[in-house]
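Final report, closing paragraph on structural work. Over the funding period we assembled a curated collection of sequence-structure pairs, and we close with a single example.
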Amino acid sequence: MGDKEATDRAFAQADVVSSLKLHYPRSHPSPIENCGAVADFNNATGKLTVYMTTQAPHIVRAAVALIAELPEHLIRIISPDIGGGFGNKVPVYPGYVCAILSSILTAKPVKWIEDKSGNLSSTGFGRDMYLDSEMALRKDGKILAVRFKATTDQGAFFADAQPSKFKIGLVHSAFACYDVPTGHITAQGAYTNKAPGGVAYRCSFRVTEAMFFQERMMQAAAVDLGMDQAEFRRRNLVRDDFPHRTPFGFLTDSGQYLKCLQIGLDAIGYDTFEQEKEEARRRGRLLGIGISTMTEPLGAGNSREYDILGIKMFDAAELRVHPTGKAVLKIGAQTQGQGHETTFAQIVTHELGIPALDIVVEHGDTDHTPFGMGTYASRSTPVAGAATAMVARKIRAKARKLAAHLLEVSEEDVEWELGRFYVRGAEDRGVTIQECAMAAYSNMPDGMEPGLENNAYYDPPNLTWPFACYIAKVEVDPETGVWDVLRFVAVDDCGVRINPMIVEGQIMGGLTEAYAMSNMQFQTYDADGNLVGANYMDYLLPTAWETPGFELYEVVTPSPHHPIGAKGVGECAAVGGPAAYVNAVIDAISGSGVRNIDMPLLPDRVWEALHTGDDVSGAPPFRTA
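Its predicted structure, as stored:
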């Protein structure tokens, strides 16, 4: 992918060529609740009802219809509130299929459920990608071109529902926030006898790997140039000339990249850090700062390019306002703890003025919700949230006609303020949205269809592109290799924030996952093919004790093509965070000459790097002796 000839020319003209080899280890999403299903086929009615832990109930229904040869109107998939997903519950696992077919054959309810070890060892994994990269540089710090080869270990088969055209995912989203003239990517995957891989673990299909590779390459290039890592980014970040075409063909929408970087640098005290670092070194302490600046594509939509099983990746919402002004919103997205019930109700409130407490949000039942592609790739707000805004606007348009009828004026003379219509020039003459709702069932004008309800299917014109700057400050103990996070600053520009508390919770959760991946989560295979990390004594999840504190800042740059300007944020921190932690540790031990330690940066790996001066690979098989 990319322009090979232009990239080769740029490398021939480069003053400096920086190279780096990395491995992003296999990781597991580790939801609190395991995968499970209860299938119940009713012989009398011919209807199949399946309760299951899925992030995409409507897509599962389509898949079941194809496999079981049942018509979709006789299949009901119910996915109630589930205890986390993180991409792990997008695939259709063999256990689901066995339970469904067994129920059809026996006409009895059949249950399948994992235990924790089964979930860790056999359900879909993320990551497990190798990178061999190069960057062509001018001596003044300008990036001329990038090229890299990505190699993935897919496991026994492909686990998740990747967009049909992108079997390598969206790894070509790398360097979208930098003004890079050209680039070239080659990619290949291998099927192995490991558990199935490819799950988009809290990311948009390989974007996490892309951003980690990108930001590790940026730090290595800055070192090779002898340039400050923040200044190197500053010279190459895209300025305010949007939309911006990336070196691999994406079109980013908006952003204030330099502003985010500067806010982060000021917050961490970057200007005085080198002095602090040198003073600490004289006392035998090793301090380091790591930076990660990234933009990622969210939404997993637009029907020109994206589909799953041939079905275009739109999403839908239905809104019904009852006579008393209370409302029911039904969405195609599926919640796993993201707070959809709050966020989507607030979108309706923003558009119609109906109090959020008067709105019920329903999801996860294919008999009672509109067709949608589910929740993953941070597509809830960018796609389903947009559908919600659009259907609310359809409701408001009909309510305006009702208001004109009630106020006995022409529709052109009716003005709107949140929750209320009024007559232009006579603001004291008005009706509330609740009065319009009652009129829709009791006093509609001649020729108007009764009721106040509608639906919307939203096909996004483009992906949304939030930006983030993450900066970690760490201390490494040279005697043990243990490293601690002293401070972590996060600056996120996710467009318009619907509910700031939920946004902050998503960021903190993502940064915690990023910390776990960089520091402790270790899942690999030994030379005999045994899984190392098949239980939670070996595959460590951070508790409140280990998790560092986070200092959060915000910049708001609305997406120009989203109905309310929102971009999404649920995955940004998990995507961009790991590189900040790793870059900080590498910066702390910079005097050793070490360029890379593969994640997780376990104490023995850091100690080995410090005392040998060699890079430390984490690629399997794991050394047991």
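The first helix runs from residue 4 to 12. The first strand starts at residue 16 and ends at 27. We thank the funder for supporting this effort.
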